[in-house]
Amino acid sequence: MAKDYSVYFNRPSLKQAKKRKIKETPKVDFNAHPNLRHLGRGKQYLIKTYGCQGNEADSETMKGILETLGFTETYEETQADLIILNTCAIRENAENRVFGELGRLKKQKNNNPDLILGVAGCMPQEEDVTDRILKKFHYVDLVFGTHNIHKLPDYLESAMLGKERVIEVFSNEGQIVENLPKKRENDTKAYVNIMFGCDEFCTYCIVPYTRGKERSRDPEDILDEISTLIDQGYQEVTLLGQNVNAYGRDFTDKAYTFADLLNDVGQMSIPRVRFTTSHPNDFDDTAIEALASHDNMMPHIHLPVQSGSNKVLKRMNRKYTKESYLDLVRRIKAALPDVSLTTDIIVGFPGETEDDFLETLDLVRRVDFEGAFTFVFSARKGTPAAKFEDQTPLEEKKARLQRLNQFINDGFLKGHQRFKGETVEVLVDGTSKKDDTILAGYTKHNKLVNFPGTREHISKRLFVDVHEAKTWFLKGAIHEDA
Ligand code: 5AD
Ligand code: SF4
Q1: Deepest of 27, 132, 303, 437, by most Cβ within 10 A of its Cβ?
Q2: Average of per-residue pLDDT across 380-397
């Protein structure tokens, strides 16, 4: 049922979001009002997450908050009293999926008028999206963005008790909220946010607008979080940020960099440390040295290159060249000889010619990437590249993507073949989807391995002999002495 009126209305503005006003980010602690602690008693929630690990981590926070309010989780739409879509704005098709899903959920809302339906995450940060939801999706009760997840208890109070439609999106990031409860999806591997936002402004990318200015968490808060995870038995942490190499750049009271953080986490007793995502321009030798100095730093680096053409890189505002990227790769491989490198590549950026594309293929060949996320350029309204006039036709973009993927798949297979006949350490995630006598886990190099085993092996680190290398995974058997 459509709600009569809205509260808290705060309209998003991408233009406003572009401004980098604050220098220092105030820190506050999360605290749900005691009166709201029973708001969700007897009620069930379902959160659907789209997009990157940043969104996955945010969903864990939303779940933590909801459980503080007494809600329990369900995976059945028909059972849910609250459904939240935590959305991604990075490409148009990600957004179309969410609008499709919203259309489909109308039926659910008709069946259960008390159902609270929410849209959160990056999409509401775009004014066009929020306007469209306001106009066309009257049955959406709750719209909030990436900067105000901690206010979820208040929004729910208004939506559930006040029967009001709540829309609040902040276009400026205000603060870092600590002590947020989290319901972690996995009990051996955890995401740890080290920073929020991005100041790079690559010309194709909506993230600096939807996620705001770069803000680094205090090292003490990060190290405390990891200590707690160690006490809870976690074996792997992934340090998260849009550009982790810029970590600490915004501190005004101390000089503490990503390399310092790696060195501090390197001395902790967490067996596996990963991080994502890196920007080649900010990846310096001190970080490489830190990675090489600690055994718990995993030998896999995701290093998005986007293109191999200097002309395209310049128009993307990536601030490095094909040559400087290759030099960085050379320095990384010199310090970490068996490292596995993966990347992100966009094809069909405005003005990309066949020759530019061939430069990308050449770079892929020279780096020996062992995996990549590949995309066709998607024009995002509000970003500079969306206004470039020399857009590449869709057919051309798709044809290039296919050609690139062939190269990348060869790299994937080669990356797996180098482990055939080796014994590798695997952190076991669980059973394979198709067969519960087969276990699945990841190696230090982040390669998926399937092997026969039993449930008691789950969550352990085991040695596995690799017998077969496929394009998408390795096959093996538990090492006899293990
Ligand atoms: N079109 C296509 N791909 C994009 N990415 C970011 N913005 C766009 C866009 N407008 C890709 C980049 C980035 C990854 C997370 O998504 O490759 O590294
Ligand atoms: Fe987007 Fe570039 Fe920031 Fe990555 S570094 S989030 S691609 S603007």
Answers
A1: 303
A2: 95
